Amino acid sequence: MTFARFTIAYWCVLVAALLPIVCAGIAKYGMFAKHPRDGGYDNNNPRHWLSRQTDWRARANAAQANTFESLPFFFAAVIIAHILQAGQTRLDILALLFVFLRIAYIMMYVADLAKARSAVWVSAFIVNIFILFAGYR
């Protein structure tokens, strides 16, 4: 019996999938103790509650949406790179770099550093293209 190896790049897929949940947690932070009629988190209508948020909470929610949007390309790129038998070390490093850039992106989004955030977004997108073509021969 052979065992499939769960690569670092595959672990990065899991971490990337958890990042939107982290963003949602940031947006909701500190609002669970308050009653919804006093502006606290409303679990009966969470999307409406999030749509009414401002400042860093609104930016965390926007980061959540953008992070969800980035997942399909990243997932596909990692899977395609594995199918094409990309060099594992290179693929692992690129996947880690993508995850670190996405974490930096979230931090910059919440902190309202728009220009730096956009530069990090572009960098992560380019890294994702490198992942996609890592197995190209």
What's the gist of this structure?
This protein is mainly α and 137 residues long. It is 72% helix and 0% strand. The model has no long low-confidence stretch (mean pLDDT 93).
Number of helices: 5
CATH superfamily: Membrane associated eicosanoid/glutathione metabolism-like domain
How many individual domains?
1
The proportion of strand residues reads: under 5%
The CATH architecture can be named as Up-down Bundle
Uncertain segments of ≥5 residues (pLDDT<50)?
Answer: none
Number-wise, the strands total: 0
Average pLDDT across residues? 93
What best-fitting shape do the alpha-carbon axes yield? elongated
State the end-to-end distance: 31 Å
Q: Provide the succession of SSEs.
A: HHHHH
What profile does the largest beta sheet have? none
Oligomer: single chain
What structural class results from the helix and strand content?
Answer: mainly alpha
CATH topology group: Four Helix Bundle (Hemerythrin (Met), subunit A)
Level-1 CATH class name = Mainly Alpha
Radius of gyration: 18 Å
Helix content: over 70%
List its salient traits.
single chain, 137 residues, mainly alpha, Four Helix Bundle (Hemerythrin (Met), subunit A), 5 helices, 72% helix, elongated
Describe the fold and architecture.
With 137 residues, this protein is mostly helical. It has helices at residues 8-28, 46-51, 55-83, 88-110, 114-132. α1 runs parallel beside α4 (88-110).
Which helices and strands appear, and what pairs or packs with what?
Layout: H1 8-28, H2 46-51, H3 55-83, H4 88-110, H5 114-132
